[in-house]
Design a protein that fits this description.
The protein has 2 helices and no strands. The longest helix has 19 residues, at about 10-30. The protein is elongated, with a radius of gyration of 27 Å. The protein has helices spanning about 10-30, 60. It is mostly helical and about 70 residues long. About 35% of the residues lie in helices and about 0% in strands. The N and C termini lie far apart (about 65 Å).
Length: about 70
């Protein structure tokens, strides 16, 4: 570690180093993977069907079915 600004006391420097070491050891310990969100929280489920393909007349198909 290198102090860029200020003049920390040895106690302040030791506290900062302890925080960095704890964070590094927690990251290397391997945190459990996050759970995948449920389908209920997926906003795509509210879409009634596939979106129309781009091309001539696509603007009509965005509102009118069929």
């Amino acid at each position: 570690m290198r102090v860029v600004r200020g003049n920390p006391t040895p106690e302040e420097l030791a506290a900062a180093l302890a925080v960095v070491r704890v964070r590094a050891s927690a990251a290397s310990a391997g945190e459990p993977p996050r759970e995948t969100p449920s389908a209920w929280s997926d906003p795509a489920r509210t879409v009634p069907g596939p979106l129309p393909a781009p091309g001539p007349g696509a603007w009509r198909r965005t509102f009118w079915p069929g």
